[in-house]
Amino acid sequence: MLYRGYTTDGKPITDWPSIYAYCADCGRFVIELRKYDEAAEISRKQMAYLHSVVFPALADHMGVSQLMAEVILKKKCGEAFFIKKVDGNEIILSKTMLTAKQTTVWMENIWDFMESVGCPVPPPDQEWFKHDNNKIEVK
């Protein structure tokens, strides 16, 4: 369950009774509070798109695992971001260190590459939050 809130006059505004009721039903729970960062949110959405659409599509197309599809896309489309040479060895870095802007550049390179290998993927749905099945549910 995901709850969002904001502050007014330095006080948090959110649906505390619903949060309390949901936690009471769980038995054990973890509440994570973090400062809202639009760039980080965009990056999370981008990563969700990559893992749910792009990596599976390339994996199916090439007959490889999704992990291998990710490695292929890091090497072919994101060499500047992911590939480092140390003592003649090639190290592939994690995608979690990318900014939203870098991820956008990588995704644009991916779309071009995917089309060139005959496996075009649809761009992410910019209106995803308006679909009924994606609305945040508050109990």
Radius of gyration: 19 Å
Helix fraction bin? 40-55%
Sheet bearing the most strands, described?
2 strands, antiparallel
Count the helices. How many?
5
Query: How many beta strands in the DSSP annotation?
Result: 4
Shape summary = elongated
| Unreliable segments of 5+ consecutive residues | 131-139
**Cα distance spanning the termini:** 9 Å
Q: List the secondary-structure elements in sequence, H or E.
A: EEHHHHEEH
Relative strand content: 5-15%
Arithmetic mean pLDDT: 82
Structural class: mainly alpha
Strand order of the largest sheet: 1-2
Defining key terms:
139 residues, mainly alpha, two-stranded antiparallel sheet, 5 helices, 50% helix, elongated
How would you sum up this structure, described in words?
The structure is a single chain. The protein is mainly α and 139 residues long. It has a domain of 79 residues. The chain has five helices and four strands. The strands form two sheets. A two-stranded antiparallel sheet has the order 1-2. A two-stranded antiparallel ribbon has the order 3-4. α2 crosses α3, α2 packs parallel to α5 and α3 packs across α5. The longest helix has 25 residues. The radius of gyration is 19 Å and the shape is elongated.
